[in-house]
# Entry
Amino acid sequence: MARWEPNAAERLANAALDLFAERGYENTTVIDIAQRAGLGKSTFFRHFQDKREVLFGRGTMNGLLAEAIAAAPSTAAPLEAVAHALDAAGREVFTSARREFTARRQAVIAANPELQEREALKNLSLIASMTDALRQRGVPDLTARVAAELGALASTIAYERWSQTTAGDDFSEIARQALNDVRASTASC
Amino acid sequence: MARWEPNAAERLANAALDLFAERGYENTTVIDIAQRAGLGKSTFFRHFQDKREVLFGRGTMNGLLAEAIAAAPSTAAPLEAVAHALDAAGREVFTSARREFTARRQAVIAANPELQEREALKNLSLIASMTDALRQRGVPDLTARVAAELGALASTIAYERWSQTTAGDDFSEIARQALNDVRASTASC
# Structure
């Protein structure tokens, strides 16, 4: 029977980041990662499908964004509903406590084309989740696609700004500003 | 010395598509592809870095779009410059003659996660090329990013529409309509 391992996914992700930075992504195996985390290989595979996946979670971000869009006030315009999704990302993912982890993760991804590809695909999947959630609010298809794309761009820009400022800045606030900036830019396109 | 092989890249891509459809992407090797195309392995590697790359060309699309944006009239607004890039894609890539190839290519990519990842990353690189080309026209950074994203979305939508209509439709025309639709949708976001 599986033992209960507190924070196993987080410990595995941290161990993976350490090893990828020390000896490179290619030279690290799943067994190395599990060992460094003080866990077994089977625990690794209960949490992640493969080595690449250890930095990408299991689609929790998709659910988080979609739920926040669904829960936005029914009067909210599409981009306002998207702002609620970015608020949720700020509360759950881009927190002060996860700032260092997030920065290390980005550095490892930037250094590895295989990880960049996985991230690019994950990003498309986040956009698809947001688009679906908007459609379910009755937003017309094309508007939903445009709003989700603009939201994803605002999120990328917010992440860049958030990771460059000194500690203490609130992602949600930065994301709302980025979303306003993106929206304003559409007018001069 | 390398022999000159007419249309080698195209022959290799067609052979790869045939084999991926017949026996699956995983069960096809570079040697199989070269053999089917009546070419040698070294010819394959003069044209493509690896098996995945055979469906993605060598960055020619990036140059094509960037050059068209640079060549747009200096008075053109950012999205009008992007429309010139989509015109170029219609003239060079999404032609009637290449319609069947393009449809088969999409079907193979849709069936294979590894290829989807490569495509997702290529798409990010096209957006980055368009963004750079717009910046070089003096478009402010954020506006350039927004225009390139909207252009990429319009291109995706145009591709969907183009591949669903019966033969004879002009991609450039469909792309301009898609770009207008996307632009109009930003107002109701």
